[in-house]
Amino acid sequence: xxxxxxxxxxxxxxxxxxxxxxFATPWTEEQVKSSDDSTVFFLARVExxxxxxxxxxxxxxxxxxxxxxxxxxxxxRGIGAKIVKELIDFSVEKALSFLSLEVRVSNLAAIxxxxxxxxxxxxxxxxxxxxxxxxxxxxTRYFVYE
Length: 146
Fold this sequence. Notes:
- By secondary structure, this protein is of the alpha+beta class.
- The chain contains 4 helices and 7 strands; from the N terminus they run E-H-H-E-E-E-H-E-H-E-E.
- Strands 1-2-3-4-5-7-6 form a 7-stranded mixed sheet.
- The protein is globular, with a radius of gyration of 15 Å.
């Protein structure tokens, strides 16, 4: 089940814990809490346990994914795909013109997941990631409304 975080004070420690388990340079609890009103977080639960999350922020009609993380023991179960779908659904609900993200060039599973949701490779950021240093692909999903 995916749900929107409505209490960042309560959810920030959980998000920070997922960050520590998923990323070499994780966001701290304080960084999560300092997110402004343009940022939204979605939590993935298995039974009562939060096992993943996705975050994004908006600027006018543009959407930018901050991070998507799923605890290692819960990967390969479609949870990441459900989070991506929720971020896309939110983008459509807000009538955004696009949703963009960065992904490590070596993260082939994530790249394929994003492509399956209509994201396109639109650029590269040299040495974007640390620990280890690595380029990022910029991937964007465009929305067209009639």
